[in-house]
């Protein structure tokens, strides 16, 4: 009857042969069939070679354990390639033939073997019988000649030493006096460690002080005799208590070469690390763990727990790695336990009172029901007995390895010693792989933070910054993310952005978070656990389940039962909050969450903390930029007229483009305003330069024009006073070109204009016949000379005429050495006959934009006024 099975598939590559050997060797070692491992690995090697090398297909290896032996099957996917079964020359029976040797070995080593075909596979199998063992014994060796028996010089002496609860010798028998040369009165009351020549068993990490506190222990150490010699001894410790409840330890010691007297038969002596040699089959680490890739930490840890479980025939096994400060252990691999729930969970190193509850020492718990909470990781798993041992490198705790069973009293000190020996052999490899993973993670973290910094620095938009923060954390760091922002110290946190790796769950998560109070804005750096989302999710799931039974109402309004349960599962895991602190003020919180029963790794939390600091500065910079932009835009908009007045009998259109990103107003400006009944003032000007400095002069000019014109001054008088005001600005003054005019619409559809052109591009008049002419003469610009003699010119616009006024940003539009100029502008204007004022302005702007491919480098303003007439279109 088959009692156990193990299978694996290997790719058609050369290295698969060694992997298959390791798989079979590890499997049989775990089943306790060490005496047939060599034959099984040799046969497996030959058959897998036939499959992956000669047949060129993947090999499927199946190990079956039965009461009478072990059967190993090797299948390939090349059924057409037949096995050479003939006994003729060159056939299966020929030693000169290369093929078929694996079957020769099967015939020679296996008790039975065979070949089976199917439409898709060819399977070769062999069975090895188990060697007979003496009945009624735990372990037995063969009868040996007297000459090869272990040598004992004289009578075998067993030193019996009793150690009290503080580690002092309380009993010292006659054999101890003979072995070590001390009389009882010389040692009583003194610590046993005073006589220890080396602190612990070679190849293990348990010292004598630790061993004396264990319930049972076996191992070797050295005792310094009275004459100064170091006597290697093998010891067996048993911790007992007297009728008064006082604990003590009874130690039985023999000379190390006589260890067979005390040594537990189930456990062989610890091999000397220096005598292991280079053969991979003799290395206990290789035998226990196989051949994992040196940089595959997860694979190494998972294989370790699986081999540990098999080695002690356990129901579950787990491995935890210590944090840098050695205060907590993080679950990294498990088998037989709900790994999805336990992975990356943390437990304290000191889990119970005293050193008996410390992960720094081996521990055997015969029944967890008698000591609830002794192993927090196993709470609620149904495990009753457990043995845990530390992983140590150079005396530093690096992890903990444990195996557990559902039945009580499954493990004793013997199993703890076996597991400790295995843990000591793999501790260095695990630590090396962990450090390699940590280095790779740190390099990846640096790359991640550099990229995140670049992205965050690339935008000053608040909403985009919030989106980037969430998108960089999901799914790289967390399953879902929520960003809370705080406007000021008196404001409550506001849920500003929510993101989930599954877009269909975003609304559900947002609705769930909206129903609970936001986290407290604590400025303390680092991640802190926030339990409110998971509690709300669990309550939502419970109420939804009750509703499905007709007992309650749904938790999430508008959500179906499936949606609510999915949302609860998505938010039901660990949730952490990181403060967003910028300039010593909490401006928000970054909330990261995991799905149900999942946990964050410490390295991920440290990376999230680094990201939160960068994100907080980026968010605060975006806030400051948005505020300053809003202020700037508000001030700039105040420099332009809020709206153009309706002028009876005149069409008016203005197009304004300020150069520079974020600028609404530059050095160019325009205005059209009523002066008195029937009279309107208009202006278009250009202050030297662009940006805020030019805009300041723009504001001065526009407001002064309105004020002076409404005081009844003529056009020349208005400009002369404006010139004086500009010069009064001193170092902040800028010269200004300005076209100012006054407009009187007439009852016959015409209009009378009085204009002054102070250094500005001349206005152009378009008549109905398509002719274009200048409507004014050039005069000195403003802001240069104190005394100006300006004059105004009067023109009459007939119905259908257009008056076009532009700034030099239009006429000086360049493409290489070409410039649009006054002539080019006039040429474009001739094509605008019959168009409305809006159409004229739009055509001029399109012509300017198309004249050059580069973006405009100067402010541009276009003011078109047209007297309605008979259109030609």
TrEMBL record:
Family matches, as SMART domains: GAF, PP2C_SIG
All residue ranges annotated as the PAS domain in the record: 160-190
Entries under PROSITE patterns matching the protein: PAS (PS50112)
Protein name in the entry: PAS domain S-box protein
UniProt-recorded Gene Ontology molecular function terms: phosphatase activity
NCBIfam families: sensory_box (TIGR00229)
Lineage of source species: Bacteria, Bacillati, Actinomycetota, Actinomycetes, Kitasatosporales
The organism of origin for this protein: Streptomyces tsukubensis
Domain of life: Bacteria
Keyword line: Hydrolase
GO biological process, one term: regulation of DNA-templated transcription
Pfam families for the chain: GAF_2 (PF13185), GAF_3 (PF13492), HATPase_c_2 (PF13581), PAS (PF00989), SpoIIE (PF07228)
């Amino acid at each position: 009857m088959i009692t156990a099975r193990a299978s694996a598939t290997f790719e058609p590559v050369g290295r698969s042969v060694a992997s298959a050997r390791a798989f079979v060797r590890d499997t049989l070692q775990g089943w306790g069939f060490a005496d047939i491992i060599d034959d099984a690995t040799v046969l497996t090697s030959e058959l897998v070679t036939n499959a992956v090398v000669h047949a060129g297909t993947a090999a499927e290896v199946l190990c079956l354990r039965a009461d009478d032996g072990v059967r190993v099957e090797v299948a390939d996917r090349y059924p057409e390639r037949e096995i050479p079964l003939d006994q003729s020359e060159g056939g299966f029976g020929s030693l000169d033939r290369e093929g078929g040797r694996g079957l020769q070995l099967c015939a020679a080593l296996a008790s039975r073997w065979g070949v089976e075909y199917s439409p898709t596979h060819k399977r070769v199998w062999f069975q090895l019988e188990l060697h007979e063992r003496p009945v009624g014994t735990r372990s037995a060796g063969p009868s040996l000649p007297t000459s090869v028996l272990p040598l004992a010089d004289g009578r075998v002496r067993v030193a019996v030493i009793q150690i009290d609860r503080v580690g002092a010798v309380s009993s010292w028998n006659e054999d101890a006096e003979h072995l070590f040369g001390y009389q009882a009165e010389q040692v009583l009351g003194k610590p046993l460690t005073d006589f220890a020549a080396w602190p612990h068993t070679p190849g293990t990490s348990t010292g004598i002080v630790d061993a004396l506190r264990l319930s049972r222990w076996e191992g070797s150490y050295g005792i310094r005799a009275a004459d100064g010699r170091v006597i290697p001894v093998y010891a067996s410790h048993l911790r007992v208590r007297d009728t008064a409840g006082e604990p003590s330890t009874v130690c039985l010691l023999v000379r190390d070469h006589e260890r067979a007297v005390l040594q537990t038969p189930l456990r062989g002596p610890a091999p000397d690390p220096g005598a292991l040699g280079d053969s991979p089959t003799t290395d206990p680490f290789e035998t226990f763990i196989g051949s994992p890739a040196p940089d595959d930490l997860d694979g190494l840890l998972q294989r370790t727990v699986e081999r540990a479980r098999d080695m002690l025939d356990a129901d579950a096994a787990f491995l935890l790695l210590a944090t840098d400060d050695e205060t907590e252990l993080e679950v990294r691999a498990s088998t037989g336990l709900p790994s999805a729930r336990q992975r990356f969970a943390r437990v304290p190193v000191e889990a119970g009172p005293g050193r008996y509850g410390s992960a720094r020492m081996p521990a055997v718990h015969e029944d967890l029901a008698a000591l609830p909470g002794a192993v927090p990781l196993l709470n609620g798993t149904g495990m009753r007995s457990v043995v845990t041992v530390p992983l140590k490198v150079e005396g530093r705790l690096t992890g903990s390895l444990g195996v557990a069973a559902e039945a009580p009293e499954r493990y004793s000190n013997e199993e703890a010693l076996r597991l400790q020996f295995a843990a000591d052999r793999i501790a260095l490899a695990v630590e090396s792989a962990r450090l390699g993973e940590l280095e790779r993670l740190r390099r990846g973290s640096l790359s991640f933070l550099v990229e995140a910094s670049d992205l965050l620095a690339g935008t000053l938009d608040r909403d985009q910054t919030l989106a980037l923060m969430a998108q960089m954390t999901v799914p790289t760091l967390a399953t879902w993310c929520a960003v809370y922002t705080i406007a000021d110290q008196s404001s409550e946190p506001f849920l500003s952005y929510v993101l989930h790796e599954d877009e269909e769950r975003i609304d559900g998560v947002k609705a769930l978070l909206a129903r609970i109070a936001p986290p407290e804005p604590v400025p303390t750096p680092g991640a802190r656990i926030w339990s409110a989302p998971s509690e709300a999710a669990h309550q939502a799931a419970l109420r939804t389940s009750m509703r499905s039974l007709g007992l309650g109402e749904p938790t999430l309004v508008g959500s179906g039962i499936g949606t609510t349960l999915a949302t609860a599962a998505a938010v039901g895991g660990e949730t952490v909050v990181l403060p967003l602190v910028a300039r010593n003020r909490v401006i928000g919180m970054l909330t990261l969450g995991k799905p149900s029963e999942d946990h964050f790794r410490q390295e991920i939390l440290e990376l999230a903390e680094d990201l939160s600091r960068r994100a907080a500065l980026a968010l605060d910079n975006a806030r400051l930029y948005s505020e300053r932009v809003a202020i700037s835009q508000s001030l700039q908009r105040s420099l332009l007229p809020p709206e153009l007045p309706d002028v009876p009998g005149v069409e008016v259109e203005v197009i304004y483009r300020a150069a520079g990103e974020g600028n609404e107003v530059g050095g160019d400006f325009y205005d059209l305003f009523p002066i008195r009944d029937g009279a309107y003032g208009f202006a278009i000007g250009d202050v030297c330069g662009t940006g805020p400095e030019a805009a300041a002069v723009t504001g001065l000019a526009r407001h002064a024009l309105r004020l002076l014109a409404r005081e009844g001054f003529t056009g020349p008088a208005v400009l002369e006073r404006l010139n004086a005001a500009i010069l009064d600005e001193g170092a902040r003054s800028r010269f200004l070109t300005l076209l100012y005019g006054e407009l009187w619409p007439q009852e016959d559809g015409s209009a009378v204009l009085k204009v002054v052109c102070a250094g500005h591009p001349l206005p152009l008049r378009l008549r109905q016949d398509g002719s274009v002419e200048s409507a004014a003469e050039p005069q000195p610009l403003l802001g240069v000379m104190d005394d100006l003699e300006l004059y105004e010119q009067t023109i009459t616009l007939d119905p259908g005429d257009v008056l076009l006024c532009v700034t030099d940003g239009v006429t000086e539009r360049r493409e290489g050495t070409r410039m649009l100029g006054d002539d080019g502008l006039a040429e474009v204007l001739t094509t605008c006959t019959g168009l409305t004022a809006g159409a004229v302005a739009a055509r001029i702007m399109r012509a300017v934009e198309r004249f050059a491919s580069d973006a405009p480098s100067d402010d541009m303003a276009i003011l078109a006024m047209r007297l309605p007439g008979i259109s030609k279109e």
